[in-house]
Amino acid sequence: MKKLAEMLPGKVSTEPEDLLCYGFDASGLQAAPAAVVWAQSAEDVAKILGFAYSNNIPVIPRGAGSGMTGGSVPSKGAVVLSLERMNKILEIDRENMSVLVEPGVINGNLQRELQRHKLFYPPDPASMDFCTIGGNVAENSGGPRAVKYGVTRDYVMGLEAVLPDGRIINTGVKTAKGVVGYDLTRLLVGSEGTLAVVTKVRLRVLPLPEAVITLLALFDDTARAGAAVGKILTNGIIPRALEFLDRGTIHAVENYKPVGFPKDTEALLLIELDGRPQTIAKEAERISEIIRNLRGEVTMAEDEAAGEKLCEARRAVSPALYHLKPTKINEDIAVPRSRIPEMLMTLNRLSEETGITIVNFGHAGDGNIHVNIMADRNNKEEYDRAQNLVKEIFRATLELGGTLSGEHGVGLTKAAYISMEIPPAELDLMKRIKGVFDPKNILNPGKIFP
Ligand code: MLT
Ligand code: ZN
Questions:
Q1: CB neighbours of 329 closer than 8 A, spacing ≥ 6?
Q2: Residue nearest atom 4 in ligand 1 by C-alpha distance
């Protein structure tokens, strides 16, 4: 590490407090790295990887450490490569509707800067006020707006990235279209920092929607909330967010960051519409009718600021849940939208059978349910019971035609389960792709594959 510190003066630390702070992410997993390095340019990243490659040192790329599956948790002897100092918005190209950013740019900061230019970058992970674009690219992050606008991958036009041996590559195009060669950009997006380290990101942006309307729908029955989700979409309306919170989640939020969600509600839908004022006003009317027909209660936020408050409360769900129990095993399964009610019934049954509290919320419009198994890591018996539930939940998800992860990725926490979903031939192809990019397995080893 001394040599690395000499190569990058002022950018390497082995201080215990840094090793502690850079040793965990939002998964709750933790391990101490051998050093932390803060890159400030692609050349720094190339130097670090070149050195690590020659010396067989594992490198763990890291944005804000807000990932939920241990993607940036170090392995033994590893160097954590923090991209947080590479945080410049390099170019806003209005004419070609794209932006060029460094990986350490905070998602929310980009959103706010673009708004000043009447532009819009839709992907909005709940952690948007602290997660980085680089982390979003590594995880292919989604968020509530994915139901209408898609996820990070749908916006990445091209990347500058550094290969594990230190070579700098450029992928993708600056044009609206491009089909020359294999699509390395789409391959790198969502590769969880296992193939290359991203140092620049070109993103497609959209015009800022003229107006936003937020609706709150309350149901005393979960099945009817599920039916409302299906009815809204089959009526040809695509809200920009269609979020679901169950009773447990509503209680947790109200106890943590009260916004007035009634606590006697069984299920709540938070619905956002965006577009031209007249169009979305009509859509809001139609949605209200659908909700009332399903015996739900509906209210409209009085203005955009009030709507944003509700969305903020939604974004606070994750921290709020820690007030129920010290540990949450946070899964992010997705099922075909029409199967949500069945999935929720299974989750209720599993909770009743095991006595373990399961709290559910998530992106109902995408069939993406955040299943939070609440336990206490220090109570071994309870924690084991909670852990055992994970496989049951995954089995039920796959039986319904779902996937183990809608947006948080595999990382460390789901690596042991990947073969439940991915068959041997496909898994073998994936591992061989990893081998082509990273023959020495130095980049984020142990992630995705068991
Ligand atoms: C969310 O939608 O709030 C995030 O994906 C985080 C979480 O699942 O807790
Ligand atoms: Zn989510």
A1: 372, 373, 375, 386, 387, 389, 390
A2: 126
